[in-house]
Amino acid sequence: MNDETILAQARKAGIAIDWTDATGRPQRVSVASLARILEALGDGEPPQASPPLFTATVGQPIEIAAEGPAELVLEDGSRQSLRLHSTVPPIDATGYHTLRYAEREITLAVAPPRCITVDDIAPGQKLWGLAVQLYGLKRADDGGVGDTTALAMLAREAATQGADALALSPTHALFPDDATRFSPYSPSSRLFLNPLLIDPVTVLGEHRVEIETEPDQPLIDWPSAARRKYALLRRLYDDFSNSDSSRAPAFESFIREGGPELEGHAVFEARNGGDPRYYAFLQWLADGAFAAAQKAAKDAGMRIGLISDLAIGLDGSGAQVGAAPRQFLTGLGIGAPPDIFNPQGQDWGITSFSPQALVAGGFAPFIATLRANMRHAGGVRIDHAMGLMRLWLVPHGAPPSEGAYVSYPLDDLLRLLALESHRHRAIVIGEDLGTVPQSFQARCREAGIAGMDVLWFQRDRERFLAPHEWRSDAVAMTTTHDLPTAAGWWRGADLELRRGIGTVEESEITQRPAERAALWQAFTDAGVAGGAAPGPDATDAVVDAAVAFVGQARGSLAIVPLEDIMGVAEQPNLPGTIDQHPNWRRRFRDPADEMLRQPGAEKRLRLLKERRSS
């Protein structure tokens, strides 16, 4: 193909030939890169004359290239005859409906105008919650990893203090045959759960479960903890299989309901030898354990309860891709273009849905993924929400700078999000940090997807924005798992960490004293601090002020990570590191049902309680 043909085909495939970098300079993707990306995209599902699913908004006509008589079968079973004139007349009922015409049958996914929001759940109120690294929680006999029972304990304690939500990092299925791959953002499958995070007592009862104890350590030894936990789970499965358990019918029902997705997952997990029913058993236990944790949160009075985290991608060698490879990108990885902090760009080593395969397959894998992550949650956070509109895709073996932005069917994905949000009564939060077009944020606002306002980024040059200047449609946060805690930032611990791996600029270090002064001034102006700013090592007053400051934000939901409630300096994850920092391994010192009773934590929770009266 000549260059013009490649350019034309790239535009047709949704590849952005031109893009603007972080400094505002226009860039163009090379023809050679476009050709490689086109070749990789062509490996997905073949295009169809007409997709098997169309999305629409309730009350609006649906464009469809068809004429003549048709029958509409609504999800509730009611039927009506109609005549198509390149459109389907407006449908007033949300749901997945069936349209039959000219010996064809397609699905019409008719969505509400927007997702469920916090204001729908608690009109006019300002709620708050905590962000939790589940693995880091602690209780007796947990085997060295935080689990769903510890989560339920924390939920009850937090609810008594007035919390309405617990936001989790991803709990997706990882790799039972390789516990060194424990990053929650590189999962094996986003359809299923990580059995290492569950307490099987929840489903099977106390008398069946006895796990080898683990010495109390500040860091998780994932391989050691996984060996003990999976040994326990295998014993439980063998006992379950060889006894007349009253729970056996529930397990069989779970297998039937899981259908091809569960079967495919279990077969893939057992590929190196083993019984697929064992891996289905693990998912049955996990499903019951997370259901119980959400029930504990809601029963304790939380209006939202658990907020799950949907990772932007998954490992290409994992179970979900292995079970249905044609649904996913092949030959391409997700990453980010070059910017000021990463001049070479980034390749995250993960994959995601092929946009062509999504359309050709009626969005089935996307819908299934949403349902899996809303199943036992009152909300879902969409990691790297820009992925709903576009992803920077990098050909395998090429440097990240040779990638390009590829478009995704945003309108369809937003409608499906809204439909599933209402069916599960789950709020949707979109992680929109970094350089995000205002047009995308506006689309999310219209769709009822809350953005994220994080303290460190709420600035106008050197000045930190006052809480009333934050967005009213965003979740307010002190920090995230990838960013410094309030104590760590004030102390400069984040700069020291990054200095150790060579990712910090000297200017960042020299600017931190002025930034501290600016932040303290913002705290003082907001009435949450006073007097002279404390020194870098005096962090307690700063953490108190940060929590109170975020509590004053305009949005209807504020979420403070547990690390800031406890006043710790260490952050859960340091991007750009593998072995240089104990990512995803830190455990809290106090048991889950006692940590919120510590004096510093109690004080910060009292500050958050003031949101309800503001």
Instruction: Summarize the main sheet.
Output: 8 strands, parallel
Would you identify the regions where 5 or more consecutive residues have pLDDT less than 50? none
* Strand residues, percent: 15-25%
Helix content: 25-40%
DSSP strand count: 23
Class inferred from helices and paired strands: alpha/beta
Radius of gyration: 25 Å
- Terminal CA distance reads 64 Å
Average predicted confidence as pLDDT: 94
The number of helical runs is 19
Strand order of the largest sheet: 18-15-12-9-8-23-22-19
> What is the 3D shape?
globular
Record the SSE blueprint:
Layout (H helix, E strand, L loop, with lengths): L2 H10 L5 E3 L5 E3 L2 H11 L11 E5 L4 E12 L5 E10 L6 E7 L2 E8 L6 H4 L5 E6 L15 H13 L4 E4 L3 E2 L15 E5 L7 H4 L17 H20 L6 H22 L6 H24 L5 E6 L8 H5 L8 E5 L9 E5 L4 H6 L3 H11 L4 E4 L7 E6 L8 E4 L2 H15 L2 E4 L7 H9 L4 E4 L4 E2 L2 E2 L9 E4 L8 H6 L1 H9 L4 H20 L14 H12 L5 E5 H5 L32 H11 L5
Parallel strand pairs: 3-7, 8-9, 8-23, 9-12, 12-15, 15-18, 19-22, 22-23
Antiparallel strand pairs: 1-2, 4-5, 4-6, 6-7, 10-11, 13-14, 13-16, 16-17, 20-21
